[in-house]
């Protein structure tokens, strides 16, 4: 019986511009997760570790990261680690693996699968590696896998997409879904897809151990594989490995927004570790309170507790006029006229401010030249709402 | 507000109180000459209504009557807001202010001091000055309606301060509240924090600008980084290409090396065979050399034998031929001797004939010379005669002085001049006409001499003389007449001088008269002509270029030569003349015949001599040939014996050795042919191919080295770039860009909102102000058109009612100072009347026109008076003028300032 850890797609050095304010933390989390994987392997006394490609996000990551990764891999010692170059870190002339850190003085437990030659990892256990030598290729990486006969456990290691309709590109190292069976492999350790995925009994994607974005599903995982012996079906345990939580929530605002705030706070407090959570929150519905201070308060509260907040209020209808602005507009003809002008502009731009019409004179229209000048200045409908917000602030100030 | 009365005291020229009471609610004309105090009265109103009672400083002090310590005191009765008031105000040392209201029975104080001032200011919508007198812009309603006589007279008023609201209220328009102003001020401040006021572009210090700058900086860095990454990709691509190339080259090199090895082995085998061939060839060459040498010896021995035989046969033939030639030679020698003897005879005969012919020629020549000497002697004689005559003539000419042509001419002219002067002297001289009663003979003495003349009754004596005349009349006496004329004397002196010169010249040539001199000259001319003719004759006799002496010498030479010829011929000259002339022709024929015969004989001799010599030469040759043959036979025999010495003198032995050498040579030839047969036909091509492959292999190795260098260089580049962690830097920068982008978008959205608010609110404000200024503009334009009668003119006002310009037709507004002063003051009046019409809609207002129409023509002034009369229904108008007659058409109250006080 052998037991090994199958992981892939560490994507160390990944860009995180979609969460730019915490990008460094997101990158650091990937290293933390990698360390944890090594610790798992060592603690559970696994026979070896397979990393099926994309340890690095790119060939041009900085040396510091390469050293950090080597140092992390050495933490697994004496458990051997077999690294397969993937499409993000292929064996091109500029490969990370061509650097000195991977060429000289590498820890004895770290093995780079540079060729397609079978590698005996244990007596009776052979890895059949298919390292990627380019970022893209229409060739099937498993095609050259030639299992070693004679009751040897053959484990294929490749990086590419299973040729499942709608889930692959023709130049994305397409792999026949039945490759494991067709080649007579005991296990096909794949990498490339970031979600945990199983095809048949012997083909597995372990998923990226650390999620890379809000859209990913079933990521932050690794595969703990046990094979009893030659020909035996592998037993695969999906283990959760992610350091950071990536949450995407939608919350309706209806009636009193304070209820919404309360509900959201409860939900956040229910998170295992809010400080390690990145939240994309979309509010929708209608806020008729006319007082949007709750929104600011909510934002402040969430930002204070979460690692990162992406608050989307574009589908939340709010009253653009604060109560004070409304009152002042009723008693101040000039202010009322200005608001009416802004409302007329919003109408002209195709996004009328319905709530403003009560205050402003709906018959107001703007001079065509003025509208033309405004359009030439690149003013957008959202800017009118922003202007009303600023006006409300000015009224508060005066 | 309008006035009822005005009392001033202690104000400039008005020391004592002066009161103007009973103001008409319509037109009031205050008139008087210049400096009578009209404007001072208006200043009384300004101080009362528009200045604090406790105002201090130099400005108010200057209102004191000059040289006094009096203090300005002003009392005014007026109606405002439908109520009648009295204002009692003192300044400087008597500073006070009391405002009283008419209650029906009298005035009741409403306020005093500052409170009273403020109430009045409120009525006038005026602003209180901080220090000193108020400025006209602070006068409120008065600023709009009063047209004082100062430097601002032609400046249109603007809607400033409190009067704006008052004005808006009067017109019933939307009101700008102070809150609105504050609102706008805050927006303007926020706008100016982001945009420049002038061009509306982003301020450098604004957050949006800085965010954009930051964004641009990151963009640039990103571009640089992406370019670097792209370069890495290019290097990778190049590296892969070069690696593939390197691999291909290596494969090609391996193929070439294998091929080169095979070819070189073939070349080595070929070279071994070629060496064998070369050795066989050398041996064959040696065998052939021996064989050829023996063969040559054998051939030579045979040739010598044959040669000896042939020479013997030839020698026998030569001996026979030599005997035959000897006979022929002897016969030819005999013929030649006979021919040479005949030739010698002919030569002797020819010598004699030529000598006889030569003598005949000499004699003929001597005779010709004799004739020539005779001719020369005759010409010499003639020449000697001519020469003697020439010498005689030249002697004659040399014996006496001879005048030249010029001298003759000068003498002749002098003579003629003397004659002419004498005729003139005579003309100037004496003339006597003596008529005698009887016949007389008398002596007449003149300059020409003395002569006797006869006179009588029928024979008068007519005498002309120069300077003197003497008549000796017998029996009567001597009558001498002398001329006293100086001119005559002078003339006579000149004549005497000329005569003296003439005589001197004639004496030099030895002649007595001019004619004689002329004759001497003519003679000399004739003699010279003859001399010339003689010279010509001598030349002809002597011949051209010859002289007498040369001719004499020639004759002598000819005579000497003749004597020599005669001596040679052995005869004298006389004998020569006596002998007949020689006959040369037969001698010439004889000589010619002999010459021809001699020539023929010479040819015969030559021919015979040649035959003889030929035979003699052939004899020698044959002899020599025979000797040669004998020598040749002897040499051949010696050589044959010498060549056969090596073989013991046996030709058979030589022959046997020759056969053996030939056999050895054949064997060597067979060996060589066998080796050559074993050599491949394309041995050269194989070697060339081997060389070509070797060269190509070396080229490939060099190319591989170049590719390796490239690979090393590219790998170094990659190592360098990998060390930079470009992707990681790009990741960081892209995230930074995202943050900067968000920051910029936020700032930009805020800036756009501010820009939009600024635009919308100012636009709205301008619209509101335009709604106020529009009717005023129309009213001013209407009034101005009525005054000027120019319908195309209209007025443009700014939002604060200040004058923007005057439009003519559809052209852009022009500044007011483009127009005449009269037009300007008319427009100012029109503005006051228009503003008064709007402000007076609720309450009668006071309009003051201080000397407003001084530059206006009568026509326009008349139309203005009509407008003033109409306006007076709602306005109180005070007109100050020094020309009251200009306003005589107006109904109203008149105040003569000179009659006041």
TrEMBL record, chain A:
Residue spans crossing the bilayer? none
Q: InterPro entries recorded for this chain?
A: Calcineurin-like_PHP (IPR004843), DNA_Repair-Maintenance_Comp (IPR050535), Metallo-depent_PP-like (IPR029052), Mre11_N (IPR041796), UCP033093_metalloPase (IPR014577)
- Which Pfam families does the record cross-reference, listed alphabetically? Metallophos
Note whether Hydrolase occurs among the keywords.
yes
Q: Which residues form the Calcineurin-like phosphoesterase domain?
A: 2-195
Give the top-rank taxon of the lineage listed in the UniProt record for this protein: Bacteria
- Which SUPFAM superfamilies does the protein's record reference? Metallo-dependent phosphatases
Residue ranges annotated as coiled coil are none
Give one GO term, molecular function aspect: exonuclease activity
Statement: the UniProt record of this protein carries the keyword Metal-binding: no
Q: Which UniProt keywords apply?
A: Exonuclease, Hydrolase, Nuclease
Q: Which family does it belong to?
A: Belongs to the SbcD family.
Supply the PANTHER family for this chain.
COMPONENT OF ATP-DEPENDENT DSDNA EXONUCLEASE, NUCLEASE SBCCD SUBUNIT D
Name it.
Nuclease SbcCD subunit D
- Source organism of the structure: Neomoorella thermoacetica
Automatic annotation (TrEMBL), chain B:
Identify the SUPFAM superfamilies for this entry. Answer: P-loop containing nucleoside triphosphate hydrolases
One biological process term in Gene Ontology:
double-strand break repair
Enumerate the UniProt keywords alphabetically: Coiled coil
Membrane-spanning intervals of the chain = none
List the coiled-coil residues: 208-363, 591-717
- InterPro entries for the chain: P-loop_NTPase, Rad50/SbcC_AAA
Origin, by domain of life?
Bacteria
Identify the residues that the record assigns to the Rad50/SbcC-type AAA domain, covering every copy: 6-284
Where does the secretion signal sit in this chain?
none
Under Gene Ontology molecular function, one entry of this record is: ATP hydrolysis activity
Q: Which PANTHER family match?
A: DOUBLE-STRAND BREAK REPAIR RAD50 ATPASE, PUTATIVE-RELATED
Q: Which protein are we looking at?
A: Chromosome partition protein Smc
Q: List the top taxonomic levels of the source.
A: Bacteria, Bacillati, Bacillota, Clostridia, Neomoorellales
The gene behind this protein is smc_2
